[in-house]
Amino acid sequence: MEKRLSDAEWDVMEVLWSAGQPLTATDIAERVPATREWTLATVKSLLSRLLAKRAVKPNKDGRRFLYSPAIAREPCVADESRRFVGRLFGGRLSPLFAHMAEEEALDEEDIAAIETLLKELRK
Amino acid sequence: MEKRLSDAEWDVMEVLWSAGQPLTATDIAERVPATREWTLATVKSLLSRLLAKRAVKPNKDGRRFLYSPAIAREPCVADESRRFVGRLFGGRLSPLFAHMAEEEALDEEDIAAIETLLKELRK
DNA sequence: CGGATGAGATTACACCTGTAATCGCAAGAG
DNA sequence: CTCTTGCGATTACAGGTGTAATCTCATCCG
Description:
Helix content of chain A: 55-70%
Distance between the termini of chain A: 34 Å
Low-confidence stretches of chain A: none
Strand content of chain A: 5-15%
Strand order of the largest sheet of chain A: 1-2
Oligomer: homodimer
Mean pLDDT of chain A: 91
Order of helices and strands of chain A: HHHEEHHH
Radius of gyration of chain A: 18 Å
Number of helices of chain A: 6
Shape of chain A: elongated
């Protein structure tokens, strides 16, 4: 990634990442979370910015473009995670974990999943 | 909190939270992470903004102010955590955990700490 | 008492963000 | 071949942010 993605840009990228295929601006506008009541114009602006950041790739399809992600989701998530855990929890995951546990943001399913992961790591 | 804190504002708040006592603007400027090469003026600006957000409390001390946090760190961290985990991991902690594990951002110590926490939760 | 000092308040300013309207052009409709 | 329409590109604009200089007092030094 050349630059960080803004919140709104993330929403657009999420659409592209989950689509699994190139989409037109209109497609994207339709799939963006409904809570963002964006007009098509807004989506197009965001696409321009994402193009400038080289986060999406335009593929000419006749008179218009099909957009697809130029960067994978994983590295972006990794970046944000590092930033976040670094800033709030001194870079360590365990304090975050402790915090979430206290907040009761963990349910049975999470706990089980994490236990399994831990076993994996231990091997 | 009335509003979200910006990155720079967090740095100021961290100083205040960890100081455990009211500080003057100058004190704060001295304790801010050195990587931020801020002038005193910058710190004062940030303090103004934090006052506007009611995140810090000014206590008149003769001719100047001693600043102390008006909000606790925990709720702020909780807010940011919710935002972060919600946005990137669908609100679930286990995918974040899986991600960090893959990134090898976990060392022995973290793993042990988390195991202990899990046992606590299980009880 | 008068000037220097130092504190907060005010102002500055460029860049980023969210949100959009408008422009200019190319393609399809007739 | 012309008119409409749908697209990307350009422009807009207010509010947030990082970073700071300047202004305005009150006070301490002499």
